[in-house]
Structure formats: C-alpha cells, structure tokens
Amino acid sequence: MSNQMQHNDSLLRFMTCGSVDDGKSTLIGRLLFDTKTILADTLTQISNTSKKRGMEAVDLSLLTDGLQAEREQGITIDVAYRYFSTGTRKYIIADAPGHEQYTRNMVTAASTANLAIILIDARKGVLTQTRRHSYLAHLVGIPHIVVAVNKMDLVNYDQAIYDKICADYLQFAEEIGLAAARDIRFIPMSALNGDMLVDRLDSMHWYAGETLLEMLEKAPAAHTEQSEQFRFPVQFVCRPHASADADLHDFRGFMGRIESGDIAVGDAVTVLPNGYQSKVKAIQLGEIQLQSAQTEQSITLLLEDEIDTSRGDMIVKTDEAPEPVKQIEAFVCWLSETPLSPARTYIVRHTTRESKAKIGAIQYKVDVNTLEQQPTTDLKMNDIARLTFKLAQPLMVDSYKTNRATGAFIVIDESTNNTVGAGMIV
Amino acid sequence: MTTSKKTLSHLDWLEAEAIHILREVAGQCSNPVLLFSGGKDSLCILRLAEKAFRPGRFPFPLMHIDTGHNYQEVIHFRDQRASELGERLIVRSVEDSMKRGTVVLKTPDEPRNKHQSVTLLEAIEEFGFDCCIGGARRDEEKARAKERIMSFRDEFGQWDPKNQRPELWNLYNARSHKGENIRAFPISNWTEMDVWQYIERENLGLPSIYFAHNRDIIMRGGAMMPANVPLASGEVINVPKAGEEVINMQVRFRTVGDITCTAPVLSDADNVSKIVLETATTTITERGATRLDDQTSDASMEQRKKEGYF
Predict the structure, then answer these.
(1) In the A/B pair of chains, how many CB contacts fall below 8 A?
(2) Would A225 be classed as within a structural domain?
(3) What is chain B's Cα-based Rg?
(4) CATH of the domain at A399
(5) Shared domain check, A121 and A268
(6) Minimal Cα–Cα distance from B227 to chain A, Å?
(7) Which residues numbered 225-284 in A keep a CB inside 8 Å of some CB on B?
(8) Which residue in the set B5, B9, B146 is minimally distant from A9, CB to CB?
(9) Binary contact (B166, A108; C-beta < 8 A)
C-alpha cells in the first residue's frame, strides 16, 4: 500500500452506520486502538470498567461510551465525534446511533461525511436498517460507501456467506439508484478480532481486497472529485475605516469561506442577489496575499469597484451565476419533537443568508424502511418528505446533487430558535 | 476546469474551519466575547482571530475569568499578548465573587476551577454577552465529544446534553433570546497534537511554564503538585505539609489552569518541536495526566458543563 499512499497529510471525515448489535462501537474502538490513538490511562480506565462489568477481555466498545445519561439508559442518544491520525491522514469519525428513532442523528452525521461505513452482521445479512442507512447516506450525498460485513468470525469466515450478502446489497443498491451514483466497496471483517481493519490477519485469505484502513487512506477528501462552480457567501465585511492607518480608510474586505470552486486575482465576479459586477483585486489569507484560492479556504476578497455588499450576499463568477429564486423544492428531514405546522412561518438559513419561509405543498413522505412514498399533511420528528418552501427573500441555490454546500439549508423555528429541519434542494 | 486541485493539508483545513466559525459568531451574534486565559488553546484562537478579522479590529473583547490561583507567568503573558494585539481585555475574578458571597468554598484550599462558572455567568450578565468563544476541544474529554460547535445554554447557563440543537453541514445556528447564551468552540475538531503543530507552524509564543523547567514538586493525592507557588497577591500556595517531601524535578505543563488542580508532567522538552515529538509518543491523555478536577468521577466534566462550565 505504501507506494499508492497519499502523502499530502489531508483530512477525511467519515461516519459509521449500524446499531450496537452490529459491532459499531467495537469497530471504532478497534480503529482507535490499532492506530495507537488510545493512550495507557484510557486503556486502564476501560479495562477496569470491563472487569467491573464481569467481562474477561477488554471491551473496546467502551471507548465510545458516552454520557452518564446514555450509560444509565444503555443507549447512544447523540452523534459523537472521534479523532485519529495515521501520520499520513487525520480522521474525524461521526459516530451516530443507528436506530430508526435516530434518523435525525444519522442525517446530522452524514451532512459532513465524505465516506460512510455501513455495517452488516454476517449472520443476519441485509436488513431493513441496512436499507435505511444506505438510503440516508445516499440522500445526504455521501460519495463513498464502504459496506463492512462484520462478525465474519461467527460464520467461520465463510466466503459464500460474504458473497451472498454483497450480491444482495448490490441488487438493493441498484434499485434505489445508489449503485450508479456512488462508489461502493465491500469488505469482510471481524472488528472484535481486528481482522481486515488495520491488520490483515490470517483468517480470510480468499479476500484479496484492501483492508478498511487502506480504503480510508485512499478515499478522496471532500471537494476533490468534481469541478464545481465558484460560490462565496459573504460572512462578514471588514471596513477598518476608523483605523489610524490612512491606507486602510478605503479598505473593504469581503470575508468568507469558499464553499465550492476556485477564484483568482483578475476574475470577473458578480455579487448576488443585486447583480453588481466587478473584478477580483486581491485575495488575502491573514497577512498573506494569494494569487488564487480554492474550495474550503477561508479568505478575504477585495474587489476593484466599491460595491455595497453585506453578510448574506454571494460572490460568484460572472459567467456561472445562479439565478436567485424565491421558491425551493427540497427533501427535508424533520428534526424537532414539535411537528412541522404547515400554517406557520419558519426561517430558512442557506449559507450565510436567512429568509422567512412558508410551506407551499408537501408532495409526499418517504418511509425510510420501505422507501415508499406516502401522501401526508404533516411532518414529525425523523420524517423525511419532499416539499416546497415559498421564500420572502431570494436565495442563490444550486441543487444538492451538484453542490452539497449551496444545495443545503436548515429550518429554524423563530419562537425557540431551535434548528428543526434539514433540507436538500432538488 | 482541471481536477488537479490540491487537497488542503489537515492544518489548513482546521484553520479554515475555525476562521469560518469565528466569522459566523461575528456575523450572527450582537455582543460576543472571546474567553482568553493565556493558555495554548486560547493563544491559537487569538492567532485564528487575527487571520479572520485583520486588518480590522476583533469584533469582540477578550475576557479572562481569573481564579486568583494562576501562574504569574501566564497572567503576564496574557496581558502582554492582549496589549500587543491592541485588543480590549476584561478580567473578572472568582475572588470578587467570593467577596460578593456568590461563590462559597467548602474548604479554603478547594480548587476553584469549577467556581469559574459562577463568575463567568455574572460577567455574561454584567456585559450582556450573547456568545462566549472558547478553546474547548472534543478530544479532551468524553462529555465534550458530543458538544456542538455552537452550543446553546439557557438562562442559567446550563447545558442539556439530551436537548442540543442539531448541527448540520457548516450551517451554524447561533441565535438566542435575551438572557440565553451561545458557547462557540472554533477548535472543536482539533486534537492536542493539532494544537502543537499549529503553534509550531505559526511560530506562536507561549507562557514559559509550557516548556521544560526545574521546579520544586510535592506528591499530593497521587499527583505531582508544584510546591510553594507565589501568587500575584503575594500569597504563596501549595506549601508542603508536614511529611510532604519537596523534590526538584524537570517538568512542564500540558494544560494550564488553576494551580491547585493542574499537575505538571516530567519532561525535557524545552522547545515546541520537542513538545510535538513528546505529544506523538506520550502514553497518557492530556487531561488524564494533569487535571485532578476531571478525576473526581466518571462524569465530572459532564456535571460541570450542565452547571454552566465551559
């Protein structure tokens, strides 16, 4: 693997989908343990807890044991973030509970992930929850899927069982359009014993593919795969006109993060929604002047002309400007215990811009287990529906399929300020 | 367009994310404050704030909640850094809360870290802050692993782990009603190693006690404690009790907090690159080695956070 390994010290965000029974916590614990992320005092702590609970071996799943509130109930109630590094790459794991009641947590974890590990128990094969996890990973646009057939030790490392599960999964993945849209890989493993995670071990010579860690090391980081149009939502305008430095009196810096695409000094740009046009005069990152900048960099843009621009505006390249819209159609996952009320006005936050929004129509609700479309008039927590919002302010959107940053929005309930919905524009 | 785009290095990515978060605070909140202790994490955040807002001024003041039990080196460094930056520094002290009677110690030598919550909430009310930016990281402690980047606190400053706002993509929701408060954590996704690598790359100055130095140490409660530490007030704390032996050792601090509950580690790392190496090979977690306040019980951080702690 060494000759193919990337030496760019990049960062990969991935998520794990599965329930406690699939060995998800053991998988994460094993990854952390085998990459030497677990330090001696933590190991002592969990080995003491393992003994206290009457277990013979150290239970690696305890590494992801969370809050007191969760231990009391023996469940995971929220997404937890874990970190490890291999020296060539830093990893952020979003560890989401897999139960149906926690669809909202899975969607949350998926929103920032570029790869999903979908765990299947080798004894049970493709289950309803496997379909649910796969559908959600697909909906939230995770480009890389690793289907991990776990607990191979409990089926005598039988290749026929593994092959059957892979075939079943592929058939289902084709049905929902996942196979065509995403990069899907399969791997047999035993997280408990550490087979095929970091080490290959001896029990599955019939499998010649990569270990899990090899797959993770090679998976592209976000935003490197497709060319995207330049989208720069303005977060903050820097006008230090009261500064003692006379040179700064006319300084007008547009600060933000490049959500997609790239930009260079001299490029023709348009500021939306007003449509003012100008050229990029300078690009700054701290005290450094850049000639160009790319996706995910937080920069300051200076334009040739004095243009009245504020937070919530979007700077784009003039020849690829989106049309501001006052209506959006989207898949929305409802996140709040208070159901959606079609009569109410909500706030939609899209990039750095907010607009009041009213429900136009709810086309249908998706049953996340059967993937059936059902007519509905309301949305409860964990429901996913296709619906239309009418907007008070224009938004500069792309479809979620082409742009995960400018195709996404959240819905806020103004009375509580809670985030109550997550939207992906069709 | 070509696909030969460069992938950002992990430090560049973390930096860009943190700058984005700081600018979201500035864009969404009307009266934020940056908590600054002079410690390594908050020094990283000051550097990030420079990159986020210069050539303008920071759109928030700096504030330190001083327990009165801080190392003088750190306090000097804090003041020096704030004045170099030309930014306003507010200091509020736990000792003033004690005088007001809002903080009551069980014993005179009780660690004061957890009492910072009271003083912090008093300062939030005094200035009407709607957001406090802090240097907490998710890798520090398990109660922090589930913390949001923008974390909502109610009127009593309480964190409710079962009722956190969902946080998706990079669409942060920092809205709050009057009296409520957001805690924002721009370096949530950084590890101790990332912090040291960033300090090395950006060539950031640090208080001297982060580097290996000789110090008188006593063993207390199974941990190494610095002995006879002079405070700014002239008082000396951690005076050896009868039977406690004083040993001079070469140590450094991995975290810097209240003197009574922050223990040093044995080390000969006297510069940042040696510390990066030491961090890569250590076998003890950052807080496990050095934070006595986290070791009271399995859930002590979770408990303090529910009560308004950072």
Answers:
(1) 194
(2) no
(3) 19
(4) 2.40.30.10
(5) no
(6) 25
(7) 225-227, 235-236, 238-240, 243, 245, 248, 251, 253, 255-257, 261-262
(8) B9
(9) yes
CATH number at residue A36: 3.40.50.300
Q: Is the pLDDT of residue B6 over 90?
A: no
> Does B7 reach chain A within 8 Å, measured CB to CB?
yes
Q: Is the Cβ of B236 closer than 8 Å to some Cβ of chain A?
A: no
> Per the CB < 8 Å rule, is A298 touching B54?
no
- Give me the domain span that covers residue A163: 10-218
Asked if B240 is an interface residue toward chain A (Cβ–Cβ < 8 A), one would say no
pLDDT in tens, B111-170: 787 888 899 999 999 999 999 999 999 988 777 888 899 999 988 888 887 778 999 999
For chain B, the domains span 11-193+299-306, 206-292
The CATH code for residues B11-193+299-306 is 3.40.50.620
Instruction: Kindly state whether residue A4 falls inside one of the protein's structural domains.
Output: no
Domain end call among A286, A320, A354: A320
- B12 with A297: Cβ contact below 8 A: yes
- Whole-number Cα distances in Å, A46 to A70, A76, B21, B192, B301: 16, 17, 34, 21, 17
Sign for the CA dihedral angle at A259, A261, A266, A269 comes to negative
Examine the domain organization and report whether A264 and A340 are in the same domain: no
Same domain (yes/no): A46, A71: yes
Same domain, A267 and A368: no
Calculate the alpha carbon distances from A386 to A359, A379, A413, B211 in Å: 11, 10, 19, 57
Domain count, chain A: 3
Residue A39 lies inside a defined structural domain of this protein = yes
Residue A426, Cβ density class (10 Å: 0-12 exposed, 13-18 middle, ≥19 buried):
middle
Chosen from A61, A84, A235, A395 to mutate, greatest number of chain B CBs within 10 A = A235
- Among A256, A296, A417, the residue with its CB nearest the CB of B13 is A296
- B241 by Cβ neighbours in 10 Å (0-12 / 13-18 / 19+) ranks as exposed
pLDDT, tens only, A282-324: 999 999 999 999 999 999 999 999 998 999 999 999 999 999 9
